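Reopening this one. Same input as before:
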Amino acid sequence: MMQGLETSKRSAGPTVAIALGGGGARGLAHIHVIETLDELGIRPVAIAGSSIGAIMGAGMAVGMSGADIREHTLATVGRRKEIINRLWSLRPASFAKAMTGGFRFGQFNIERILPAFLPDAIPKDFADLHIPLKVMTTDYYGQTERVCEAGDLHQALAASAALPAVFMPVRVNGRVMIDGGIYNPVPFDHLTGLADIVIGVDVVGGPDGDGETMPSRIDSLFGASQLMMQSIIAMKMKAHPPDILLRPEVSRFRVMDFLRAQEVLTATAGVKDQLKTALDEAIEARMKV
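Same output, byte for byte:
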């Protein structure tokens, strides 16, 4: 079954591009996908990402391995003490700006907070990346998606991850931007024609529960967002699906469950074998054409 994959490692083989979707802490499942591509010796020719997927994609685009990203994640957002220490490191003026309006939902300044958690390897400018990266953002007043591909990388990543009701919007080139996943949860459509095989990774998930318990206000807010994003993905799948779409089992995790990082990784490890099988089938299919 894996003969096609082994062939792709020994020769040039089909080119691969990957779209990493948004989903907050659920997006830690992307680490398995990156690790699997590393194991197979596959280097994407293009990457697109929304929200957490854009952040993971930036690490991949600068040359970080899946193991590097896993180690950094578990050592930072996976530890409560480390999160507090990194937020405290923003003091005095930066901390005050990062927490504009106090500790209230919707008032956290992600443009100040995010750099404190990014790996040192991620550069400040797109020009220093080794693989082309498309970072998805949503133009709040323009009511459309915006693709960031050049300029200030940290600003673009902050805008792409500016989840409404949690973080303040980010101004990019004079426009007010929010979470890229709002308009394009898994931006595989921006990779069409750039590679032989396009992979999409959907970590949006959906409302999880017994079907009877009334959700809290915050759970219903995030749950409604999940439903909206899944409808967008469904429409894009009908129009022009990627060659491979992966959906790790992430629904039982909340969008801000970063302290459960190890649990997320354990629960979604099965996506590795799913990707290997899907790639093998896609490569074999191309070889028959």
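So the earlier flakiness isn't reproducible anymore. For the record, The longest strand covers residues 133-139.
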